[in-house]
Q: What sequence folds into this?
């Protein structure tokens, strides 16, 4: 099983509360809210405590972001991951990975691929 | 018809994790089947995803440029993020404000690898008109299929559409892999930087591998960061984290 498959499996199977908790610690609530398309950064905190549950597409987008995070965390620090997510990525036509995830729910495959290339160096 | 073959540079340089910055590890998936331009992925990867391609440069500058480029700032992004998440403010515990355009401390866990290349090894120069003539003669159908242009030239080779570049790489590997060990191309970031995509047959041609640590004071890195308008962290931050 490839590392990207492992990341996909982990993102699919992990409880949403754990995902939200880990992502808010690493990326901050605002970036997680942006990537998942919700206007409220504090909503991420409510997912982390289980007070609320992300629904439908939001849950999927949270897991998509986590999938990218799992690939990057293999070798990178939280600070590097945040910088990478917000940088102009040549592999993604110079768009920021976080903005691609925000704008296009189908972008996760390309972003995950770029993340794997980055950690593969 | 023949492609333009060029000799190797004095040394090849690659940024990677020590102890082995140069490694051949098949990783790329096959080129997605798409009627739209495919902008993601590495430029000269095998379109079928069956063999590994290692990217490096003929100078430390080329190696650094390609690896710090993902940290360049995106104009207006912080404002767009705030505007899209303005319903409330994040919990201060989980509110990070990262400066844009800063190479993170973690980058310095990488090392600069360099190696000699067998002087008899040859690379296909994809920026040369001779190679374009070969592609026009034998692989022109691809252009009709993609509807992008009628002729290969330097401008077309610079395209970000991986449907073209990866299939060109596959064609060159299949038809010229017995006389070349990879591709020589110009960096998209800076035209004075020369890059190389190594095919697996280059493994036997690359030798005398050496690895050097990097720091925010490494001269080639300083020069490239300045050109890309990136800020390097202070040296003492690297020391503290290491």
A:
């Amino acid at each position: 099983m490839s590392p990207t498959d492992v990341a996909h499996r982990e993102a699919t199977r992990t409880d949403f509360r754990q995902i939200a908790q880990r992502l808010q610690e690493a990326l901050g609530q605002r970036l997680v809210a942006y990537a998942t398309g919700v206007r409220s950064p504090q909503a991420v905190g409510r997912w982390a405590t289980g007070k609320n549950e992300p629904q439908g597409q939001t849950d999927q987008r949270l897991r998509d972001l986590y999938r990218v995070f799992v690939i990057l965390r293999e070798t990178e620090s939280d600070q590097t991951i945040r910088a990478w997510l917000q940088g102009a990525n040549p592999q993604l036509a110079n768009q920021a990975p976080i903005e691609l995830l925000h704008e296009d729910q189908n972008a996760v495959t390309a972003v995950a691929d770029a993340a794997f290339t980055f950690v593969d160096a | 018809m023949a492609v333009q073959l060029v000799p190797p540079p004095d040394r090849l340089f690659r940024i990677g994790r020590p102890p082995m910055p140069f490694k051949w590890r098949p990783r790329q998936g096959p080129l997605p089947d798409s009627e739209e331009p495919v902008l993601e992925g590495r430029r000269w990867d095998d379109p079928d995803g069956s063999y590994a391609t290692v990217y490096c440069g003929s100078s430390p500058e080329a190696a650094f440029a390609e690896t710090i480029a993902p940290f360049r700032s995106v104009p207006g992004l912080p404002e767009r993020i705030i505007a899209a998440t303005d319903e409330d403010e994040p919990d201060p515990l989980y509110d990070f404000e990262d400066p844009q355009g800063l190479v993170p401390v973690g980058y310095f866990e990488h090392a600069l690898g360099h190696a000699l290349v067998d002087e008899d090894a040859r690379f296909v120069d994809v920026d040369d008109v001779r190679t374009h003539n070969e592609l026009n003669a034998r692989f022109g159908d691809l252009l009709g299929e993609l509807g992008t242009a009628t002729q290969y030239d330097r401008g077309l080779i610079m395209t970000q559409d991986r449907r073209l570049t990866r299939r060109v790489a596959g064609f060159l590997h299949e038809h010229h892999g017995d006389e070349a060990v990879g591709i020589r191309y110009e960096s998209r970031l800076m035209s004075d930087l020369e890059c190389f995509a190594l095919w697996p047959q280059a493994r036997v041609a690359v030798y005398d591998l050496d690895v050097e640590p990097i720091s925010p004071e490494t001269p080639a890195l300083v020069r490239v960061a300045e050109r890309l308008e990136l800020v390097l962290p202070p040296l003492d931050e690297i020391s503290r984290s290491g």
User: Anything to note?
Assistant: Chain B has one domain: 5-32+41-77+101-241.
